[in-house]
Amino acid sequence: MPDNRSNNRRPAGRPSGNSGTRKKKRKPNYPRIFGWSIGLILVLCVILIVARILIWDKGKTYTMTAEDYERIKLDTLDNIILWPAEQVNKDTYDGTTDVLVFGNDSFREGSKKGESIMDMFKKEVESDKVKIYDCCLPGSYLTSFNETEESPEKCPEDYFTLFWLILNTNSKDFAKQNTALNYLDSSKYDIDRYKEVLGILEGVNFDKIDVIMLCYDGHDYLVGKKPINYNIDDPDNAQTENVATELGALYVMVNFINNINPNIQFVFVSPAFCYAKNENGKLVSSAKYDTGYGTIGEYIYTARYTISNYYPISYVDIYNGVLINEDNGKHYLEDDGITPKEKARKMITDRLVYVLKERF
């Protein structure tokens, strides 16, 4: 009878028991590893792309420096024709260039911390040879509200527009401004600042002023004030003495001052880019939106037109000379679409210093 146990014999020389069994070395599954690696790399790439898109969409602000202006050579409409005061006022120059500044909101924003455009500008420019009188008023406008005079009770805001401030600074009669203060809404206007400016203007003598700077932002445009009032029957007659228009306010002011002191030089600082609100309350680009009398570009053109056609007024182009536009404006402007944030104020200040410091 066959012996079946012979089938259970172990090969000679192989030890018995599982503990001594040698396992065969497993080879790496390279195709699988390669596939997983490619998949992991693709996932990481997608995550990186999404992160970059989110960062790009968030944006990054950048403040222009003097070196940037030299390097980039922005296409601006600057026209600086200031002469040193000692050359203009050879008989009356006292060794100090006195600069009187009128303006509004954007140039006073940050003043509580000493970080407004005018605060920073003064720190850079003011010296024992340059004196700056900052009379910028939040809530003020370059153009008047009315073509003819209204009482302070009926339109108190009018008496803090450029024309009335210039007129009463010369006469030193601020009775109408002081009356108007009683009718201004103290929740909207900084009454103390208004009183402070009136105090500064009390001490201003146009015979001693060398330069008048006009620093008004886009608020005139936003409320739909007229840049110019054309006469349909006589297109060449632009009603240059209508102070309720930008052209008229500038024209009358320069004429008035020149009759007092023909040596005073003028600097007009253009508005920076801002947004407007359409009929639905949505912020839209001022470069494209007509608030009733044109886009902000037409306001700027009117100022340029006045300057180039009537008087040799220096022109500082902030609109084109500062990199704030409809694409990045939300990073530089507050939610109202016009008030400059700190970096925007620094950018505008650097621009003014770059263009004007050596002239002053």
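(ticket continues) Second input and output from the same batch:
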Amino acid sequence: MQTKPSKFWAYIAVLIGIFLLLSGLAAAIGYFGLPFFLSVGEALSYELGNIAALYLGLLGGALAVYHGMGSIANHKSSKLKLPFFYVFWIILGLVLGLGTLIINNDIAVDFLFPPLFVLGAALSVFAVLAWTYRKMGFPITWRQASLAFISGSTLSIIVTIILGSIISFVIYLLVNPLWYIADEFAYIGWGAPDFIEKLFASPLILVILAVTALQAPIPEEFAKALGVPMFGRARIKNERQAFAIGLASGAGFAILENMLYEGIHAYYNGWSWGGITLLRSIGTVLHPLGTGIIALGWFRMREGGGAGKLFKAYLLSVGLHTLWNGGFEPLVYLTGLSYYTNASISVYGETLNILLIGYLVLLSLGLWWLLRRIVNEISERVDTKPETAPVSSRLIAIWAVACTAIIIPIGATLSPAWKEIRTLIFGS
């Protein structure tokens, strides 16, 4: 006999939602009040923090309370449906252009920029969910997606901070001494016998990847997936649902992390907010995909595949995360590209290494390819009947405006560097 799903986590969701709502109200008071008491130069950093708390508190809290109460009352939740993914990218283009204009011309920055800051952090993440869910035939409900999203934005963040603090001591006590061993291989001469073999076996590379994995991927990938088992076997009935819930949890985490990195650039460097937002948007698939892979491994383990399914999924997720966070340094070291890494380019005012941009773009394409392959694999026996995506004249016009909003600021930023770029490409 099938057991009735427990209401325990529904009550927890309501309690957390109430706390988030109260926090969001306090943040709203700060957001609308602080600029009147602080100077313009001091207010922006507070306002970015307030708008992030306002987003998590009011939006996340409302979702948690509403869907938690719905679960307690046994109200059926409707199927989650999102617009076509390119809608989110079009809006993101407009946000980048408008946000750059506001922050660099000091147009009521404290009030107008923070909402665009939130949109810049969230839109590309929702584009990933929109594309994937549509390909899978929208396999989960609004309630499942919302509660997983809140879990990734709250529980996962808290656990990551705690584990990150603990692991910092592990890095200091166990990993740092290995640098002394790695230094012995740092002076390997080019052209020496068996150089390639020694290079690939160099402890320096292993230490770099180990430290990178311990600093973020290992605790983050563990923390992001904690909310998935809370739904239980009674609510997750197939692989598509498990993968979709994992994606939602990773998306909640990704948006908060985007706010952290993009907020620093917005406050201290102005123009660089657009550059770092654009670059992070390219790789926005990383966090949702990683958690989705672990959720898929968890479901297959529960279906009798053994703990090895979950462990392999976790290792794959950590490996992909490690390649994103720290794979560039081993790449240039192993290939000798470090001799050519002085070439840089300015994107929205953020000076970035050309090789780094190329590496992240290629890795992002690989992540999208992996996402597409997983979606096709778990959906091949299911008739999802995805809707067609007609392209209207109005959509083309909107897209043109969005492209203009992006291209004009980038062109203005790149213009001082055009001489260097031309020399780099065509020679002197």
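Agent notes: The longest helix spans residues 40-72. The radius of gyration is 23 Å. Closing as not reproducible unless the customer responds.
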